[in-house]
User: Fold this.
Amino acid sequence: MKGVIFVELIKMAEGAFGEDTVDMVIEKADLDNDGAFTAVGNYPCSELVKIVMAFSDHSGLSPEVLQRKFGHWMLGFFVDNYPEFFADKDSAFALLESVDQEIHVEVKKLYPDADLPRFDTNRPGPGRLEMVYSSANRLDAFCHGLIEACMERFEEEGDVVRAPHPTEQNAIAFDITLKK
Amino acid sequence: MMTDTTDDRVSRRRYDRECQARKEAEALLEQKSRALFKANDELSQNAARLEQAVQERTAELSLALERAEAASTARSRFIATMSHEIRTPLGGLLGMIDLLSMDEVDPGKQELLDYANTAGTGLSRIVNDVLDFSKMEAGVFLFEQENVDIRALIESIRILLATHEHGTNRRILARIDDSVPKLFLGDATRMRQIISNLVNNALRYSTDGPIIVRAGAKAHPDGVLLRVEVEDFGVGIAEENIDNLFKDFTQIANPLTAAAQGTGLGLAICKRIVLGMGGVISVDSRLNDGSTFWFEVPVQPVSNPDAQGSNGSKAAHGLPPEGIVGRRVLLAEDNLINQKLLLTYLDRMGLHVDLAENGRIALEKFAPGKYDLVLMDVAMPEMDGLEATRRIRDKWSDAQIPPMLALTAHVMDAVEEEAKLVGIDRILSKPIPYEDLKLAIEIEIAAASGKNAPTSAPVASVRPDAPEPTPETGTEARTFFDLMAPTAAESLLDIFGHDGLIDFAGKFITDSNSRIEQLLAAERSGDVKTVTDQAHSLKGAALALGFADLAEWARRIEHGETHLDKWTVAETAANFQARLDYLDKVLKN
Assistant:
């Protein structure tokens, strides 16, 4: 997993809990590299899970809530740093559909070794999007947060129903319905 | 100490962490830099390899192209050579048969000669078919752009084929629509080839009923679309065979003849010619119900029919008939058979021939004013005809050089360009029939005399065989004797002496005048036998005195061949009379 995720997670935690708390929690989390993450590096996803669990222990917030918050944070990061991906999109669905088709294509150009999750999309009817997240790393809640933040970004409201995919393993189905 | 630190100071742990992250980032950067350098290096190596591969392929391709071009050139040369090698002996054979037939009186032998001639002509046709086909294969088949009078063309095919082996007792009808332009631009030879081929097939695949040749035209973006149809009422063609009809080397079994005839290339060649002209060829036919072969080609009508006079043999007919008898010809020919054939032909035309065995000898023999015409074979040892022509052109001015004709058994297109370049006035293709050769010589000589020396009277243009043209004011005896063939004059002078010969010549003129009067009278009353008899006598007498032109005209009347000069019997006889009058005047002066 790209280092930028770890750097941003820690940055978010620093904003929420303060530097000293973060130093302490990271020390307790028993990370392989003692939390010395760099945005250009690659780190195992299990380290991210360790950090999330450590902050959950510390704060009493569930990992689910933390991951979803982090999803919101990361969307803000993407908007600030990669505005070109948002420029020509007029809706949350259009952006979500472009993740696999456009954004990850560009990511692969810069980082051929990046191990990216897959996002298959499908519109079963008007105002509805099915998005299937397939990855060995189960950051379901993180994705959930990203989707919510994305709708907020386009000033849209909707329900996101999350369920394991009925047939595929390591896949989560998001069923998003826009509110009229 | 720690408690003294201000709030914006970072902790040691945080500092260590940042240092470690930076170190890691730097290591990563270095690693990526190396990878990038390596990738760059590989890229330039690949580029170099690619460039080399492109160079190698380019070299291979140009070598292959060179080889293909060489093969194509070799093929063209092979075809030209084969053409020469086959046509030369064939032409010799046909010519010899021709010569034998001219003199043969025994009907039995004449019949055999006719068979030989038919077989030879058939072979010649097949050889020409195969050569045409090879030329098309080799891509050296060129189309001429000349004025075509399709009415005259179809008429001549009609007449020719009606007298042909299959065509006797068959009616060939021509129906040319008024929509067909009087003249249009096209290749007359190829068009004749297609139409005669179709009519020939119609004759071969039908036993009775007429053959109808139709032509019509309709508007087309490139002028008009000419459509020619040849309809017969013969065996017809089953539908399943129609597709194969225009393919190479295929023939439809002919229920009318047991054996297959020809090469099966006729229609294939027609198709290629028509396609080459940008047209289509096809057939509408039902088994046992006759066939209509048709082709359509776009042609450009010639708006000014006067343009007709400017090309080819048509030009000759516009000029006053100019005698060629007594003219001097330099013949360059190495092949013994061709020598014999051409010498006999030229002799028959009443020409004085000087033979050169190759181009070098021809070059040595040639001098301005010495000859009225030069006939050059192209392929000769030591120096070929084209080279000899070039050197003659280099040495003397155009005004000093008589018409130069090239004779070739090569495929014409192969030498045509070069021949024109070295200054050949006309190329003749071997084997050349007697009449074609005569016509070509007549045209060239007529054109040359029209150009160089305006003649006072047509008959006066017969020049004595002397290096310098003798003025008309010379001694009368010399002028008269000079009009005779030199050998005849010599031997007659020997026998009669000077005065005796003048006396004899006077008798000849009186006697001939009386005979020609009788001949004309007989011609008017339709007494063919008297015409023939008188002509025969006139021929003998004229030959005895060495007046080859008179003898030739008499022979033509005798053999009913005056149409070959496009003259009637009366016109030929009138010419004969005019020449006698002229001789009389010269004699009495």
